[in-house]
Design brief:
The protein is mainly α. It has helices spanning about 5-15, 20-25, 30-50, 55-70, 75-80, 90-95, 95-100, 110-125, 135-160, 165-185, 185-190, 205-220, 225-250, 255-270.
């Protein structure tokens, strides 16, 4: 394992509750490819979610980064872009060039393109102050912040071993996971003054939205024969289903023991 590979896995462990465990189920080159792709997107996500940067600064950084991702990545220009905010931005953001460097040449352009599109979409929603009025708004926002993760992963599966998956179902997969996060983090979002619920929706509507998209995610994984890819996809999907069930029962979240049980159950299903 190279130093950069080792550092990417450490960074992944520190920044992702959802994807660290599933990524460790992947092997060798595929594991580091998905890790690098995830960290590229996490790098810009940290700009969108930053607690102290103002909206104009976020929009500027996201749009400028999006443009840098459309050509051979220039780390020096990127470092200069971030320099006024260096002390406040996290390491995962400042090291975007490293995550791109870690990504194999055969797929890196797809990863950069998806990350660029995500950054542009995030900039749009920053300026809209994340005000979601309709289901179409919610669909658009969840496409940018999560659906693009799904389509990027589908591109990686095809590159890796010609595993073909449906891009529309991949988007729904991302939307479903994002909707579960929204339901789980409602109190935290309220404190930040953010509400992702469309006008005239209530919690039951958001539950229905999450369930409808997770049902499509169930369809998505039916096309996957590769056991390691199936295990990767099925783990967060089953955790999302279980989290919805826990929330329905009035729990704030699943316990660590319950998470462990779900993961072990999925491993047994896939390996037998």
């Amino acid at each position: 394992m190279t130093n950069l590979q080792h550092e990417s896995m450490e960074m992944l462990r520190d920044t992702s509750r959802t994807f660290f465990i599933p990524i460790t189920f992947l092997k060798d080159k595929l594991m580091y490819t998905v890790a690098s792709a995830y960290l590229c997107m996490r790098a810009i996500d940290e700009i969108e979610d930053h607690e102290t940067l103002d909206h104009d600064t976020k929009e500027h950084l996201l749009l400028a980064t999006s443009e840098l991702l459309k050509k051979p990545f220039d780390q020096a220009t990127y470092t200069k872009l971030l320099s006024p905010y260096e002390k406040t931005l996290p390491a995962v953001t400042k090291r975007l060039g490293d995550w791109i460097k870690l990504c194999p040449s055969g797929i890196v352009d797809k990863v950069k393109s998806a990350t660029s599109e995500m950054a542009t979409g995030m900039a749009k929603w920053v300026q809209r102050d994340w005000i979601i009025r309709t289901k179409d708004d919610l669909d658009e926002y969840t496409y940018y912040v999560a659906g693009l993760v799904g389509t990027m992963l589908s591109d990686i599966w095809r590159w890796h071993d010609n595993t073909e998956t449906d891009h529309e179902l991949a988007i729904a997969f991302g939307r479903g996971l994002q909707a579960v996060n929204m339901l789980r983090n409602q109190d935290e979002d309220d404190l930040r003054g953010v509400n992702f619920m469309p006008q005239h929706w209530n919690e039951a509507d958001l539950f229905a939205y999450a369930k409808a998209n997770l049902k499509k995610a169930d369809e998505y994984i039916e096309a996957i024969d590769n056991p390691q890819i199936l295990l990767f996809c099925k783990t967060p999907l089953q955790l999302a289903h279980s989290t919805l069930e826990a929330l329905t029962k009035g729990k704030e979240k699943m316990s660590r023991e319950e998470v462990h049980e779900v993961v072990e159950d999925v491993k047994q299903q896939v390996n037998h």
